[in-house]
Amino acid sequence: MLLESKNVIFRGAPGTGKSYLAKQIATDIISKGAFDDYTQLTAEQKQQVEFVQFHPSYDYADFVEGLRPRVNADGSMGFELQDGIFTRFVNRAQKNYDDAQKSAATIAKEASVQEQMADYFSNLELEDYTPTTARGTKFYIESVDERHINIAIPDNKVANKLSLNVDELRQMLESGQKFSQVKDLVVFFGKRNATQQYTYDLALFNDIKAQRRIRTKVAVQRVPMKPYVFIIDEINRGEISKIFGELFFAIDPGYRGIAGEVSTQYANMHENPEKKFSIPENVYIIGTMNDIDRSVDSFDFAMRRRFRFIEIKASERLDMLNVLGDSKKNEAIRRISALNAAISSVDELNENYQVGAAYFLKLATVDFDQLWNDYLQPLLQEYVRGIYGEDEIMAKFAHAYGANAAVAGEIDDESENQG
């Protein structure tokens, strides 16, 4: 169902194992049916799954992108644009999607360049090494990460710090072209004017090309397309329009890829402001929500149209209790069934208020009375708060569950008094 629909939301009563089911399905898809236990995934496979829980203060900056404080090399404070968790996840999926379209020859070329760059930067003594531009300007490489090469230019009194784009340097090396002057880069990148970064890109390009190294033959095979599953727990507890922003359009199953490209809110701050954001075909989204949560009613209707809703009933997830052993499992199922029947019999409640099997997994460390006193009773008291006769209703629940005799006997005492 997930592979067909792209986006699904599991809805139902609390404790029905919706989050656990989401991880099971993600694991099953990623392992191609080999297993459904998330802990069995390899570290590499776990990169294909991401889990986040929405809450009222969760926002666009957490999810898509936003400005975050950073300490500059000189100790001063500044801000930088950082990707949110969903953007980082989509970037991983997009890379796999793009790589799956490439030939073995292209992959071999990219792997060779990646090795070449890694050799160059790993062998540098960053503080001592000073590359030089075509005009003789010396600069230092302060740090290198996945996206940037941060350099210092002591002789530049106007801008003595600069951040170079790793991807631009990689593209130059992969192209197989020769670059002898800055204007060659302007043409290559399709720009109207040169940037200050191009001067230093050219210097590093020539330096890397000139390095002597033993070339190893990289074993290459075509990259298979992989599924990537993003799980949003309690999706309805966040302010959806604030979190997703313009991504409403991009997550639509009918507008994946180029058809659903959008400009994000901070596009003008990107290194390439013209680059659009899109979600590739190999991304799948699973949300979970509790039907009794007050925020369900305010769940954005535009978002509802983009998800397939699947109800998870309390009676459907009893298999979770297999870990308890037969004796305790059978007793737990008996009590769940009796308690949920009592809950559904209250006019103001319905099956959305039933108790799921996940609560009973706590029986691994507590007994049935402790489960009632510390977990189930407080939950049910919230359900019946404000309902006429709430004490009698709670006594009825306790009796159905089979709580300790002192509590369960209250309903019998009240019946005798009424008689």
UniProtKB/TrEMBL annotation:
GO MF annotation: an example: ATP binding
Domain AAA+ ATPase: 4-316
Name listed for the protein in its UniProt record: AAA+ ATPase domain-containing protein
The organism of origin for this protein: Lacticaseibacillus sharpeae JCM 1186 = DSM 20505
PANTHER family: 5-METHYLCYTOSINE-SPECIFIC RESTRICTION ENZYME B, TYPE IV METHYL-DIRECTED RESTRICTION ENZYME ECOKMCRB SUBUNIT
Domain of life: Bacteria
